[in-house]
Amino acid sequence: MSLGLGCFAQQKQIETTTDSTKIRIGSQFHLILKTKVDTASSVIFPKEQMFGALEVLEDYPTDTIIDNKNRTKFELIKKYGLTQFDSGRYVIPQLKVLINNKPFLTDSLFIEVTNVQVDTLKQPLYDIKDVIVDNQSSSMKWWMWLLISLALIGGGVWAFIQWKKKQTKTSKEPEVVYTPIEKATIGLKKLEEKQLIEKGAIKDYYSELTDIARTYLEEAVKIPAMENTTAELIENLKLTAIKRNLAFSDEMISSLEKVLKQADLVKFAKSKPLDFEIVEDRNSVEKTLRTMHGIIPLKTPEEEEAERNEELRLELERKRRKKKMISNISFATGIVIVIGLAYWVATSGISTIKNKFFGSPTTEFLTSEWITSEYGNPPVKIETPKVLKRMQSSEFIPDEMKALFKELTMFGEGSMFGDYYIMVSTMKFQEQAQQQASQIDLNLVLDGNYGLWEKQGAKNILMQKEQYQTVGGIEGMKAYGALDFLNPITKSSTKVYYEMLVFKQAQGIQQVIVIIKESDPNKKEIIDRIINSVELGQAR
Is residue 292 situated within a structural domain? Predict the structure, then answer.
């Protein structure tokens, strides 16, 4: 990992500057690259839409300035207009410039983006405000899941109600089916109960009486009696009797015809038969229908077979509709689940869902026993899920800086490209270097970390800084934010969240860094526990 001091010495081939170190959201600032080359040299500046997390608004033409003292030399000046639409502290990453097909890297710089316009010349600089957590997207997710849950519950309730209705219908007693003669007999009885004759409603009486007769003929004899005139009905009745070999006598047909004609006279000619004639007509209809019932044979084998086939067809149709209804409900439920899962994946990411169902690699830390130990000199007392192991520190410190330190130690656990990473570093100054070391700016130490992270493949670095004070009263700096690490082996990018503390005492510097995957649901709880446990000691 880094100790943040690698930024003190570097040979520069490309001069890298900006015209501002702090801008408001959406404002443009300029990145300026300068290089001095021979007039015969070929120089290719980067052409990209994004420099890290910063958007390139304008790519200006390259300016060329000839050296008056040496006409074979000239200076190339390349300017870019950059911006960012979210507040925070951003890194302008190292950019590759090709000079005679040989790559040279620019310096990485920092730019602060604020919510208010800042004049860096006339107004004092203030600390960056804490990150404001926007709960709107989280709220929208809950609303979406609430709607999906209600849809699923509603679908289930509707399916249950439909099934219950079917069960209720099947459990009821079968509906009573009356034969044509039974219907006629019941109809005649109800007609008498209405007492239409006594009320003088003769027309209504004859209308219902003939409807009873016509209904019987339509159902029993199978002729269109309800829509036929009296003459057509009698003619169809005679033809059907011959066709079906029904022994209807002329007297029976004439008796029925007499009643139907009487009814026509009452309805259309306003005829008023006597009471005894009305009773005779009623008795005549009942007698005729009963006689016909005795003559009409029971259903033929063909008719019975047709009825059985029809019942079977209806039963199969009922089963088909039930199966289709269940299939539709299952399909709709599946669609809702798929849409819900797709929305969850899109808004939360695969890692979050995986952690939700299967737990994250750090879940065990919440229940396991942690270790409290001291590391380095000046000592850092800290509580961690696992014991930190000594690391090789010399590779992270430039040779010209090693002379400042009497002792230099690093302890760590995990991997920058893994699920988590914890690192504690301590540096004890040489006695003769303590006066020089006391002038070290902790902001530079923090910025040095970002520079080294960038060299190790970090992109889109977002940083917030603030003053920090331990329980013992030792003051330092705290930085936190997010970045993307490119795994050099898998070539996959991982977004991580980090927090780091750096302290400067009279005899040394102490630093704590914790990195956990952004998608880890336990990151806040674990990092808070580690950071809050830090206690600093004096150099021994």
Answer: yes
- How does pLDDT run across 148-183, given as a tens digit for each residue? 776 777 677 777 777 766 666 555 555 667 888 999
For 25-65, how does the pLDDT look when each residue is reduced to its tens digit (9 = 90+)?
888 999 999 998 887 888 999 988 899 889 999 999 988 88
- Boundary residue ending a domain (58, 80, 114): 114
* Adjacency order of strands within the sheet including 43-44: 43-44, 96-99, 102-105
Q: What is the separation of C-alpha 275 from the centre of its chain, rounded to a whole number of angstroms?
A: 82
CA–CA separation, 56 and 49 (whole Å): 5
Kind plus residue range of the DSSP H or E element containing 153: helix 136-171
Average pLDDT over residues 385-396: 79
d(CA 379, CA 507): 11
The verdict on 523 and 395 lying in the same domain is yes
Give pLDDT tens digits for 344-374. 656 655 555 555 555 577 888 888 899 998 8
- Which residue range is the domain that position 202 belongs to? 183-297
CATH number of the domain to which 50 belongs: 2.60.40
Question: CA neighbours within 13 Å on the CB side: how many for 368?
Answer: 13
Crossing angle for the helix pair 180-193 and 275-295, to the nearest 10 degrees: 170
User: Which pLDDT score, from 0 to 100, does residue 291 have?
Assistant: 92
Q: Are residues 199 and 279 in the same domain?
A: yes
465 and 374 in a common domain:
yes
- Residue 507, domain CATH: 3.40.1000.10
Q: Which of 96, 106, 98 is nearest to 31 (CA)?
A: 106
Q: On the CB side of 391, how many CA atoms lie within 13 Å of its CA?
A: 23
Helix (H) or strand (E) holding 480: strand 475-486
Determine the Cα–Cα distance for residues 188 and 182; give it in Å rounded to an integer. Answer: 10
% of the chain beyond a pLDDT of 90: 23
Angle between helices 202-216 and 250-268 (to 10 degrees): 140
Q: Is the pTM of this model over 0.85?
A: no
